[in-house]
Amino acid sequence: MTEILEVLVHRRAVKAFEPVEIPQVLREQILDAARHAPSSFNMQPYRFFWVESSPRKATVAKLCLGQMPAATATALVVAVADIGSLAATSQAQLEWMRRSGFSDAKVRDYERTAKIGRILFMPGPFGIFGAFKWAVFRLLNLWKTMGMPPVFHQDLLKWATKSTSLACENLMIASEALGLNTCPMEGFDGRRLSRFLGLSTRYHEIVMVIAIGKKSAAYAEPPQWRRPLDATVTVL
Ligand SMILES: Cc1cc2nc3c(=O)[nH]c(=O)nc-3n(C[C@H](O)[C@H](O)[C@H](O)COP(=O)(O)O)c2cc1C
């Protein structure tokens, strides 16, 4: 087995951690691995809050319903789907392309794509534009083979959640590869945690909180069960 596969199969959701420090260099490696995940249109529609200072971590652990992984972790990473960053992200990519010497044609191509993206991904006030887009796309789809862009606000959050989740998996696998352990958690009070982090209800949704630390020596993992391949895979 390759080292990557070994890390993948050894990762477990660890429920109790030892109090170890995570040096800044390790933290940066873990977060850097997260942002290397693929994302839809390379829009990287997420934000990570790395919570490690004592009082804040205690508050976040409490908002994770006092779960043991949260209470004992060295750091808690709150992964947030962020649809408020799209315009700034495409602008930043455009500036990077100009700085990096991309040809004018390539820059213009990207500008055009970004413009179309902005129109497609904008739900508009009260979702009115979203409803209009939905009707247009459904009508066109009667004749034409085409994908449906995220039209409503909830679709956009779902769209951003997919890319955020991939970044979360990268973060967990990188932690494991660097000798740490993790536990992803969706057991948290989203409303209070969002307020604590100053998130906007319009643009942000917490996808999961990841507890990171070193597995406690006293913690024994239960055996790992997975559905058999033929229950989850169809080969056509
Ligand atoms: C989206 C998501 C949410 C989860 N939420 C929690 C949680 O709130 N608390 C917890 O202890 N484990 C949580 N888990 C961990 C799962 O229980 C665990 O991954 C699963 O039982 C399989 O165990 P394994 O990861 O050790 O193979 C979550 C996992 C995922 C992917």
Question: What does the model show?
Answer:
This protein is α+β, with helices and mostly antiparallel strands and 236 residues long. The protein has a domain of 160 residues: NADH Oxidase, CATH 3.40.109. It is 50% helix and 14% strand. It has 10 helices and 5 strands; from the N terminus they run αβαβααβααααβαβα. Strands 1, 2, 3, 4 and 5 form a 5-stranded antiparallel beta sheet that branches. Helix 2 crosses helix 8 and helix 5 runs antiparallel to helix 6. The longest helix is centred in the C-terminal third of the chain and has 25 residues. It is globular. The protein starts with a helix and ends with a helix. The mean pLDDT is 95. Bound molecules: flavin mononucleotide (FMN). Flavin mononucleotide binds next to strand 4.
Task: Write a brief structural summary.
With 236 residues, the chain is α+β, with helices and mostly antiparallel strands. It is 50% helix and 14% strand.
Taking all residues together, what is the mean pLDDT? Answer: 95
Bound molecules: flavin mononucleotide
CATH homologous superfamily name of the domain at 3-83 and 154-232? NADH Oxidase
N- to C-terminal distance: 27 Å
DSSP helix fraction: 40-55%
Strand residue percentage:
5-15%
CATH class of the domain at 3-83 and 154-232: Alpha Beta
